[in-house]
Amino acid sequence: MKSLVPYLTFNGDCEQALNFYKEVFEGEIVYIKRFKDSPIEASSGDLEKVFDSEITFGAHTVKASDTVPPFEYNSGNNISLFIGLQLEEKVVKAKVDKLSQGGTMLFPFANGFAMFLDKYNIQWMIHNVA
Prior knowledge:
Blueprint: E1 7-10, H1 14-25, E2 28-34, E3 50-57, E4 60-66, E5 80-85, H2 89-100, E6 104-110, E7 113-117, E8 123-128
Parallel strand pairs: 1-4, 5-8
Antiparallel strand pairs: 2-3, 3-4, 6-7, 7-8
């Protein structure tokens, strides 16, 4: 296996989420492909939605898209993103605070670990080993 890449599905706000994650983790959006440029037939209201995208954070890659009919968006805890960091605790705490804002804290940051749902209902596990 070359790599295992998490794939996130959003309910129309994929590009907004990618830009948010890019800011928090100083990542790079590698590409965004829209439904209008895909082989999938989509309604006129869905043509600008994200068909496929990729964002990188250092050596890590995450792919993402919006969902359009006939597929249904199912939000939940079926995927978690586990991020291992080696940073000063205050830097990690600031990232946890920013990512969890507007979401739901499941395990508040303590002993180098936090788990929460962000405002897009994506579950994160942050572990700092500094």
